[in-house]
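Problem: given the chain below (372 residues), write out its structure.
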Amino acid sequence: MDESGALDRPDEDNGSGHRAVRIQDVAKLADVSTATVSRALASPEKVSPEARARVLEAIAKTGYVPNLAARSLRSQKTSMVLVVLPDLSNTFFSKILRGIEERLFEAGYGMIISDLDGSPEKEAHFAAFTAAGRVDGAILLNGHLFGQTREGEGTPAKTGIPLVALCEAIPSADIPQIEIDNRAAASRMTQHLASLGHRSIAYVSGPAHNILEKERFIGYQDGLKAAGLPFDPALVLPGDYTIESGVMAGQDLVGRTTRPTAAFCTSDEMAIGLMRTLLSAGLRVPEDISVAGFDDIDFAAVAEPALTTIHQPRRELGQAAASVLIDLLQGHPSPKRIRLETEIIVRASVAPPQNIEKAPAKSTRTRAIKPT
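Solution.
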């Protein structure tokens, strides 16, 4: 028995015809001693952050499971689920987390939240956390498997538990995917703006590597084409879904001599930042520039003016992901892909452009909400 309490049997077969991963394998890959591996697991405060990060990465790559944890997995479940977030500070995730928690609670499960915050060390830690049997399953909102990039590069870490992707699909992963149709939603919003008479529609994008952005950008182009409008690269402004990037996009528009009559932001936070910048510069929303968002976060309805946006059923998305994971944990079949419906919520931030006759309305499903 090693210092972590794990029994190490060098010749033990893992049931697949291959030798089970040993603590020596982890130590060799991490370039540390077996004692350091044991301390990193049992007493992490006694190991330097650099050495612990290498150990956690090696555990994630090899799929090493200490025998005590393995015995626990054979005898009983943890009744805990890991929810992996890219950024816990993003208000978009609040209702999703509520939906997940509600469904897990009903089924007798608890929830552990992993806030990766762009940290490779955190990701390696939680990959090892899953491999060690600390949770029964995981819901991934970070857009990639442990050990891989968003582009699917790299070897996925071995977790040994059911996984479900939520919101950000992971095309390379053979796991259930719960999402909305981002492309269709962006196309409908673009067509809605065009139906009001807008012929110059700016697009404030999300991060270039993000699959949501890729789908929404294609949808924006689809919408322009359906409305008979040309695509103008000069109307595409970079963003990253944050208020700050919306402010920068607003500054760009303020500085232009010829401005678009509408701006479609692919997140509500960017739309709110953009509107605030326009208003501070003396421009009127929607009289001078209409502004539309995406997500329908809580702040959208109370922004000034209230924000027209794409409503995502965030609570229902969370509930659906939790339900699928529970089915997997209980040995029931589950669908590989679920897409929930979105809708356009019409509020005060969008109106026909002044002095332009309204164009014939395109077919688009909307729900009008009176400003509060």
